[in-house]
Design a protein that fits this description.
- This protein has one helix and 13 strands; from the N terminus they run E-E-H-E-E-E-E-E-E-E-E-E-E-E.
- The strands form three sheets. The chain has a six-stranded antiparallel β-sheet. A four-stranded antiparallel β-sheet has the order 4-11-12-13, with no helix packed on it.
- A hairpin with a 4-residue loop joins strand 11 and strand 12.
- The longest helix has 5 residues.
């Protein structure tokens, strides 16, 4: 059995994997290192990670979740969280509830402080998940898949725009 305990100080914060890291002008606004804690602990129904955001950056674009509820607990630093049209200051010790829904629940955390902003993110692990990105008109479909024959975790990710969808019967 996997050891069910990990001290925050021992969580290894890693850069985003290739293909999921922002590039170009976008990289000026977004940056984060993430420790994927739930996988290390063998969690099944909840996902949790520790996210570290440098000053002046955001970890992810504004987005909402259709199926998975999230909770953030600020461990270090200060910043703000925008949920829908409202922006709230956050600091060490704050707990933020992020409910499922549409644009009214779209959220983004921004480090407005002068030091690293570090938070514990906890979410349900309903798969597949659909995320909406209301500022860009995009959506994303994300699904965990069974491991490959080599034992690597399987994952499906598609980000697109509804206006570019193919007809279901096209080429049928």
């Amino acid at each position: 059995m996997t050891k069910p305990i990990l001290n925050i100080a021992d969580a290894e914060l890693l850069p985003r994997p290739p293909g999921f890291a922002p590039t170009g002008e976008i990289a000026e606004r977004y940056d984060a290192r993430i420790a994927r804690v739930s996988a290390q602990l063998g969690a099944q129904k909840l996902g949790y990670n520790i996210t570290s955001v440098p000053p002046g950056k955001r970890a992810f674009p504004p987005h909402s979740h259709r199926f998975n509820e999230e909770m953030f607990m600020v461990l270090e630093g200060a910043g703000e969280v925008t949920i829908g049209k409202e922006t709230y200051p956050i600091r060490q010790g704050d707990i933020v509830a992020l409910l499922t829904g549409g644009p009214e629940s779209a959220h983004v955390v921004t480090n407005t402080g002068s030091t690293e902003l570090k938070y514990l993110a906890v979410s349900t692990r309903i798969s597949p998940e659909i995320c909406d990105y209301p500022t860009t008109g995009k959506f994303g479909v994300f699904a965990e898949l069974p491991p490959s024959t080599e034992g690597k975790p399987g994952f499906f990710r598609h980000v697109g725009r509804e206006s570019l969808a193919a007809d279901y019967w096209e080429g049928g």
